[in-house]
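Structure ticket #2291
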Amino acid sequence: MSVTPPGQGNSPVAWPDASPGIASGLNRFLVANIAFRRVHQLQFGARARVDRGNHKATRVALLETLADTISWTAGEPAQPKASGVD
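Resolution: structure written out below.
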């Protein structure tokens, strides 16, 4: 099974337009992680920042992430704690 990139060919998936901020070089796993965390917020009552339509929380979170309507930051990686044992 081959996968057709968004906007090329007859893809069975309707890909939303992404803003240049999200689409340019971000790791797809990071985008999925951000959307996953947003799903939890939506399920616990957060208001959608895009037109919800008849979509479930998962689709709305992905649309919000790709539309760059939610803010996020990535901190410095955690440093391992010293165990105190030499």
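Closing remark: Residues 28-43 form the longest helix (16 residues).
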